[in-house]
């Protein structure tokens, strides 16, 4: 007999500027079998935060940063309006899905919560295009002049990590790159320390996830 497996519901924290909006969103999400809304008064560990806002004010940005720094969970943002300058700030605050309030039907909010909990993201096409343009501009104007990639890695660090991922040891990497073994170790130490990575495999995994190797 196959044992019964219970799937834990996604726990969502809902924040809104008024009780009526919060109640409406919470009621719908709570009625969904796979989602459970956690109490705002006595917050439990949550998987996703849903934040409704008129616009990206200082108070809203502070709330997003607080959720990012204390709860460390992805955020679904439902703004009445959001402009280009606010978009990058939102993404920096761990907002993974932006759902304009005018298009925020119950079904779309539910879908955004599921997507965020699964590690995905959702941005309207115009916002996604603007985000990509901002990233490209940051790479061109800020990172490239200092020899950095959007991953936070320098070209030399990327080369060392690429050779590590191919199974080469320190001596072999040094030979391939015409460096001393001490220089290779210094590069690896610099990467792990700067990016708070545990060890060499963790550094290689970071580079793979960043798409640079």
TrEMBL record:
SMART domains per UniProt: HTH_LUXR (SM00421)
Keyword DNA-binding: yes
GO molecular function annotation: DNA binding
Keyword Nucleus included in the entry's annotation: no
Domain HTH luxR-type, residue spans: 146-211
Family matches, as Gene3D superfamilies: 3.40.50.2300
One of the GO BP terms on file: regulation of DNA-templated transcription
Keywords, ordered alphabetically: DNA-binding, Transcription, Transcription regulation
PANTHER family, A to Z: DNA-BINDING TRANSCRIPTIONAL ACTIVATOR DEVR_DOSR (PTHR44688)
Protein name as catalogued: Helix-turn-helix transcriptional regulator
